[in-house]
Amino acid sequence: MGDSFVPGLSYRSGAHELWALIVESFREWERRVDAAAGEAGLSPVSAWALVQLDPDHPSSQKELAARLHCTPSTVVDPTDRLEEGGLVRRRTNPADRRVNELMVTAKGRRVREQLIACLFQPPAQLERLPRAEQERFRDAMLALVRKSQ
């Protein structure tokens, strides 16, 4: 890795090198998101917004923004595009008419399932690891994620 990823990068510790490897692995994720979104006719942001919606429970735009770690105004454009594409439908929350809810349509469910299938198919490099190494790596990643929450 090293210079091919970031010219002049040298590691101060094993943890520094490990983090750089994790960050470098995101390039595959970005390519995958771009490709899957493109196939669905969506921007990567709209595609990820659709993935984050629960098709069985309407979500407010505020709830979606919280899931996406952004401000509610930021989700307006991606959800407009999802609605224009017939993937979600907006409705007024019957309990609070000030709140718009997003409901995933039947078409949105199909597109969401395709996105999830593509995005979360493990890369061949992970599938080739022996099961014990997969489990060790999973356990280490779980520990990392839990400590950052």
Question: Could you explain the architecture of this structure?
Answer:
The protein is mostly helical and 149 residues long. The chain has a single domain (2-148), classed as Arc Repressor Mutant, subunit A (Orthogonal Bundle), CATH 1.10.10. The protein contains seven helices and three strands; from the N terminus they run ααβααββααα. The protein has helices at residues 14-40, 44-52, 61-68, 76-84, 106-119, 124-128, 131-148, and strands spanning 59-60, 88-93, 96-104. It has a three-stranded antiparallel sheet. Helix 1 packs antiparallel against helix 5 and helix 2 (44-52) packs across helix 4.
Question: CATH topology, which one?
Answer: Arc Repressor Mutant, subunit A
- Major sheet: order of its strands? 1-3-2
Order of helices and strands: HHEHHEEHHH
Output the number of helix runs. 7
Oligomer: single chain
Q: What is the CATH C-level name?
A: Mainly Alpha
Distance between the termini: 29 Å
Determine Rg (CA atoms, Å).
Answer: 19 Å
Architecture in CATH? Orthogonal Bundle
CATH homology superfamily:
Winged helix-like DNA-binding domain superfamily/Winged helix DNA-binding domain
Shape: elongated
- Overall number of strands: 3
Strand content is: 5-15%
SS-based structural class? Answer: mainly alpha
Mean pLDDT: 91
Largest sheet: 3 strands, antiparallel
Which consecutive residue ranges, at least 5 long each, have pLDDT under 50?
none
Helical percent range? 55-70%
* Tally of individual domains: 1
